Amino acid sequence: MHNVTPLQRKLFPLLYLPSRLYAMAMRLRRQWYESGALTSYKPERPTISIGNICWGGTGKTPLTEWIVQWAINEGLTPAVLTRGYKSIPPELPYLVHEQSTAREAGDEPLLLAKSCPEAHVVVDPQRARAAKWIAKHHNPDLYLLDDGFQHLGIERHLDLVLLRPQDLTEDWNRVIPSGPWREGEEALTRTAAFLIKAPQDDFQALEPFCQEFLAQYKAPVFPFTFSPKGLTRLDRSESARGFGDEPYLLVSGVGEHEQVQRTAEELLGHPPIKHLRFDDHYNYQEDDWKFIREKADLANAERVLCTGKDAVKLVQFNPYNLWTFDHTLDFGPGLFTNHSFPDWWRATWPLL
Questions:
Q1: 116 in a known ligand binding site
Q2: Is residue 2 predicted with pLDDT exceeding 70?
Q3: Average pLDDT over the chain, rounded to an integer
Q4: Source organism's superkingdom (predicted)?
Q5: 55 near 182, Cβ under 8 Å?
Q6: Are 130 and 148 in contact (CB under 8 A)?
Q7: First-last CA distance in the chain
Q8: pLDDT at 4
Q9: Which has the least CB within 10 A, 271, 347, 348, 350?
Q10: Cα–Cα distance for residue pair 20/339, rounded to 1 Å
């Protein structure tokens, strides 16, 4: 998770000017695309960007999966265009399949391809090239641009922008290098809808900040949560609501370790006997799994629990008694609208 660091706060007077210059450069770049000085590719089908204003995780992958599942249920074939962070694909563009490895596809694209095999998940840092390729070979019904807010080389029909709670408080408009924002606040005028990963009580506490900062953009604001509904053993041989009172070891290679632990405690009713934390998008090796298993055995924890992102990378080691979360995406009532996000989305789709 990228927040304004204590050092950035201390150096803010020195970083303010470089921050404004960076925001100005991004604004100029955006104007060049809008004027046609820089060309962008326009797909023939509806194109939706799912992105954020800041660096770091905001829940883009779960939201992308929700829209993908909605499209499949409607009889549509979606294509997800993604960079594939830290991936080393054998070719570009690279169409991810269920037998791809996390090294080839990246952990999140692989997780999405396994969860939604009917979708086309394409890895390529050049989204326009990926869109042209998938249009030629598979002709999808819609395009989803993963982390696409700043990728203006491909036109979109609407931008969904995900925010963190701190983006509305201490991090507001703190652009690189003084903070985690990738563009200045004026970029948010492109937004069709904002989404904030926050429980309803936390979202209500944010409403004054939404009124102060977001009302000017005339876009609805929707809260959502990524809630655990159960556990599945990685070999799919067993599902469970919990582990009873038995100890378990927790593994996470994500940007929000504390959130993963809170999720585990909420579902299981007690904390892990030990929590091993790895860097976000960590590339696990066989020695890492041996280390994890050794720590679990020393703690008398028969079961190891991890996130889906970790599971798609650990599965190659034929892990014993490795479990992962089953999640559901829940949406709360929106702000500046009478709809929840699913209702808003269903009403907006025919207009694209």
A1: no
A2: no
A3: 92
A4: Bacteria
A5: yes
A6: no
A7: 33
A8: 67
A9: 350
A10: 36
Beta bridge partners of 219: none
| 334 in a labelled binding site | no
Q: Is 10 annotated as ligand-binding?
A: no
Looking at residues 324-337, what average pLDDT do you find?
93
Q: Which of 54-58, 166-170, 256-260 has the lowest mean pLDDT?
A: 54-58
Are 312 and 323 a contacting pair, CB within 8 Å? Answer: no
324 annotated as belonging to a binding site for a ligand: no
**For 175, phi and psi rounded to 5 degrees?**
-85, 150
Residues 6+ apart with CB under 8 A from 65: 112, 115, 116, 329
Greater confidence, 160 or 321? 160
Confirm or deny that 58 is annotated as ligand binding: yes
Query: Is 56 annotated as contributing to ligand binding?
Result: yes
The answer to whether residue 346 scores a pLDDT higher than 70 is: yes
For the chain, domains (ranges, CATH) are 9-220+334-351 (3.40.50), 226-328 (3.40.50)
Describe the chain by its helix, strand, coil percentages, rounded to 5: 40, 25, 35
Contact 220, 343 (CB under 8 A): no
Q: Binding site annotation covers 184?
A: no
Question: Is 307 annotated as belonging to a binding site?
Answer: no
* Euclidean distance between CA atoms 241 and 264, whole angstroms: 11
